[in-house]
Amino acid sequence: MFISENFIVFPEGDVQEITGRLSINEMVDVNGHPVELPLATHKTIVFRVARIKTNEYKGSSETLNYLEQMTAEELLPYAGR
After folding, report:
1. pTM of the predicted model as reported, rounded to 2 decimal places
2. If you average pLDDT over every residue of the chain, what do you get?
3. Which site from 14, 39, 64, 67 is most exposed, i.e. has the minimal number of CB atoms within 10 Å?
């Protein structure tokens, strides 16, 4: 049996397990779920997947998705009108 685990790593270093896989530059909320566009406002907390690292072990693997928080200015193009 092979076990795959996925985690998000916040900029402060906190780690949280998530259910699915993410991709580079994907925009996610604080729970690691992809955000729906357009955003209600540009003042929403949104993270971007900056780096992905996979560690392989005998019988398992863990994927670490490193996040960076997006600024309000970066979110302006994604906010609804």
Report:
1. 0.92
2. 96
3. 14
